[in-house]
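Sample entry (225 residues):
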Amino acid sequence: MTYYKEHNKVWVSVDVIIFGFEQAKLKILIGRRQMDPGRGQWSLYGGFVGAEESIDDAALRTLYSLTGIKNLYMRQVGAFGNVDRDPGERVISIAYYALINVKDYDEQLCREHELEWVDFDKIPALYSDHNKMVSQAIRIMREKIKTEPISFQLLPPLFTLTQLQRLYEAVLGAEVDKRNFRKRVKDMDFIEKTNLIDKTGSKRGAYLYRFNKKVYNDEERNFKL
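Predicted structure, serialized as tokens:
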């Protein structure tokens, strides 16, 4: 028996907004659209939801095909369904954002998909409503980064306090008071100072820190940076 024949069918897709951080810049992964409509326009990467998969599974599949990495931080941004958002068909898209350490990303995959890391503050006009997706994602991310330890998803396992501060400034789009920032970091026992020193920035160097996820998860923590 066939149901809902009296209703019009719509397509459901997912779009993934991948954020990275490199050289004190927040970055986003985009590419030229390789299909009609909109062929050649800058675009996020996405795909249609399969008949046998959930929207989360579709987003995870898309993210893995782009990065080759599993267990990345990914959260839903929201649904985008304006009637005229896609001139090809009636398409509703569910947007997600993901965080990745750029150094972990396979450059070969980047070339295969013809993608580029673009500075967040230099994002060009994107296909359809993709700029709106990015704007909504960064608003969510700016709230999350203040109260949850998501920032460490964008950093290498060992990082300097300067790197951590620059990351927060890049995401928030504003300068952070250095003294207060470092004081709050040093009050958090799950951000551990190591005996290792990074000398890439100066001869004196800077101590490297790491995020101890186990310590953070063992007790309820008040994360606020």
